[in-house]
From TrEMBL:
Protein name: Acyltransferase family protein
Enzyme class, UniProt record, top EC level: transferase
One Pfam family recorded for the sequence: Acyl_transf_3
Residues passing through the membrane, by range: 25-44, 56-79, 100-130, 150-170, 177-198, 218-239, 246-266, 272-292, 304-324, 344-366
Claim: Transmembrane helix is one of the keywords in the record: yes
Coiled-coil ranges (or none): none
MF term (GO), any: acyltransferase activity
Domain of life: Bacteria
Residue ranges constituting the Acyltransferase domain according to the UniProt record: 19-363
């Protein structure tokens, strides 16, 4: 017997995508483990662990791909005809900026206390979330500050473009949505090859990866817009009843296999986005479909939903804990320090615990109060109920 069709809008689009909320934590935790691993594995200097380095390096970029695709999916899923661009932009800015300002302020204080230089280049573009547009490593990746906020510069472009982009994608006939999705996925795969025409010098700090091709492929907001569009097209496929019915478990296995292949076989620049975006889109669609059909999944447990809700705060605090917490990455010998396996495990475990605690505090004391207070004008808040939480990621 074939699976029942996914309800079309408005029934499906009104569903609460709790599994995607749980998946958000997995993606954030991948970024955290990535950054812990790329610091601690070289410190241990055990030849038997060197095979793990490509996978540690790929975990974080894979988590970022997930968030970019997820943003396009859930914003399209939650879009309502009566919404306005100003209200939409207001909600998104209130979602990201309070956490951003608090963590940036904390980063600047910590930089001053520890003697790291605070300059216009490593503060002003980051404050306004335009750093990813500027192909300068000091601007995009100031390792003593909250470097992962470069991804918010990409998200800001997505949010600004979404009200104009959605009507254009809604004009695509349902029968051609898969063709468009495949085309966008192929464009994502082509980006590293386009980047080969860019200069190979200089290289990214502490690596041998050419900076210009990496910036164009990984950090440039317009390049990452393709993943956002992939998510939008995937949402339209599900809402229009064109989903192929791929169950969640096979979708997880496909995404996992694509990660193993791309991380283990492809050069770093090619493995950080490439074909995995397509399989992540399938995974997100399978999770949303499972929620619409009322299936029970591991990702929609109470614990996973709670962790998913604090995932954005986790993303915003984790690098500061790595820099200034037990691992002392911001120290003078942060990149060259040596460690034992037991000490590395203790430092890594403490980093995870402290990050989760600070993420919960940031969510409870900053993010949630700000969203409740400022996401809607007072008049609108009094006249209409809150919008359903569909697991929108930042």
């Amino acid at each position: 017997m074939s699976a029942p069709p996914v309800p079309t809008a408005p029934d499906a689009s009104s569903s609460r995508l709790r599994s995607l909320t749980g998946m958000r934590f997995v993606a954030s935790f991948m970024v955290l483990i990535c950054h812990i691993g790329i610091v601690l594995v070289p410190r241990v200097q055990k030849p038997g662990l060197t095979w793990t380095e490509p996978y540690f390096y790929a975990l974080g970029p894979t988590g970022v791909v997930f968030f970019f695709v997820l943003s396009g999916f859930v914003l399209t899923w939650a879009a309502r005809p009566g919404d306005t661009s100003k209200l939409f932009w207001r909600r998104r800015l209130v979602k990201i900026y309070p956490n951003h300002l608090v963590t940036l302020g904390a980063a600047l204080v910590l930089m001053l206390i520890t003697g790291h230089a605070v300059t216009a280049a490593n503060t002003v573009p980051t404050l306004f979330l335009v750093q990813a547009w500027i192909p300068d490593q000091e601007v995009v990746l100031n390792y003593a500050s909250n470097a992962p906020t470069w991804s918010l510069a990409c998200e800001l472009l997505f949010y600004l473009a979404f009200p104009g982009l959605l009507p254009l994608l809604n004009r695509i006939r349902a029968g051609r949505l898969w063709l468009w999705m495949g085309g966008v996925a192929l464009l994502i795969c082509a980006l590293p090859f386009v980047a080969l025409s860019l200069p190979e010098q200089p290289v990214m700090t502490n690596t041998d990866v050419p900076w210009w091709p990496l910036w164009f492929t990984y950090y440039f907001p317009i390049s990452r817009m393709l993943e956002f569009m992939l998510g939008m097209l995937t949402a339209r496929i599900v809402l229009s009843g064109r989903w192929i019915g791929l169950p969640l478990v096979p979708a997880i296995l496909l995404a996992g296999a694509s990660f193993v292949v791309t991380a283990g076989l492809l050069p770093e620049m090619y493995s950080q986005t490439s074909a995995i975006a397509f399989f992540i889109a399938l995974l997100i669609a399978a999770g949303a479909t499972a929620d619409v059909r009322g299936h029970r999944t591991l990702f929609r447990s109470r614990t996973m939903i709670f962790l998913g809700e604090i995932s954005f705060a986790l993303y915003m605090v984790h690098w500061l804990v790595i820099l200034y917490g037990p691992m002392q990455m911001a120290g003078a010998n942060g990149w060259t320090a040596q460690s034992t396996v037991s000490r590395a495990l203790v430092d890594g475990g403490l980093t995870v615990v402290i990050t989760l605690l600070l993420a919960w505090l940031l969510y409870r004391l900053v993010e949630r109060p700000a969203v409740r207070r400022w996401s809607r004008p007072a008049a609108v808040a009094r006249s209409s109920p809150p919008r359903a939480d569909v697991g929108v990621g930042s």
